[in-house]
């Protein structure tokens, strides 16, 4: 999760892509992630990215990610599901939490 958040804060779409499971990588390329990052850049980029304590249950885990943009707005809380893939924790699903 540290590398995932670092990717957001530095605008590194490839780093974000690399933290995703094969399943999630099949849904969006690094190019698509970069396009999303470019939209965030118009609002000052992502300045903070934090996650809650990771709750592990066997070979899956979950956490919540929050953060702020450069314009001071907060991006929606995101629920993140992680799985173990080839011995490494990877992000397998993400969904915005309805407030």
Describe this structure in words.
The chain has four helices and five strands, in the order H-H-H-H-E-E-E-E-E. It is an alpha+beta fold and 99 residues long. The chain has one domain: Nuclear Transport Factor 2, Chain: A, CATH 3.10.450. A hairpin with a 2-residue loop joins strand 4 (74-85) and strand 5. The longest helix has 12 residues, at 30-41. The two termini are 23 Å apart.
Spell out the blueprint of helices and strands.
Blueprint: H1 2-10, H2 13-18, H3 22-25, H4 30-41, E1 46-51, E2 55-57, E3 60-69, E4 74-85, E5 88-96
Largest sheet: 5 strands, antiparallel
Q: CATH superfamily, please?
A: NTF2-like, domain 1
Give me the Rg, rounded: 13 Å
Per DSSP, what share of the residues sits in E-state strands of 2 or more residues? 35-45%
Helix content: 25-40%
Mean pLDDT: 93
Q: Segments where pLDDT lies below 50 for 5+ residues?
A: none
The backbone outline, from C-alpha atoms, is globular
Please report the first level of CATH classification, the CATH class: Alpha Beta
- CATH architecture, by name, is Roll
Please tally the helical runs, counting DSSP H or I stretches of 4 or more residues. 4
Helix/sheet category: alpha+beta
Output the CATH topology.
Nuclear Transport Factor 2, Chain: A
Cα(first) to Cα(last) distance is 23 Å
Give, in order, the helices and strands.
Answer: HHHHEEEEE
Number of strands: 5
Overall number of domains: 1
């Amino acid at each position: 999760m540290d590398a995932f958040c670092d990717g957001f804060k530095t605008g590194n779409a490839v780093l974000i892509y690399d933290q995703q499971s094969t399943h999630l990588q099949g849904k969006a390329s690094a190019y698509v992630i970069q396009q999303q990052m470019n939209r965030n850049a118009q609002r000052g980029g992502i300045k903070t990215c934090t996650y809650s304590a990771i709750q592990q249950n066997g070979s899956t885990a979950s956490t919540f990610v929050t953060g702020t943009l450069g314009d001071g707005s907060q991006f929606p809380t995101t629920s993140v599901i992680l799985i173990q893939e080839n011995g490494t924790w990877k992000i397998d699903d993400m969904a915005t939490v309805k407030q």
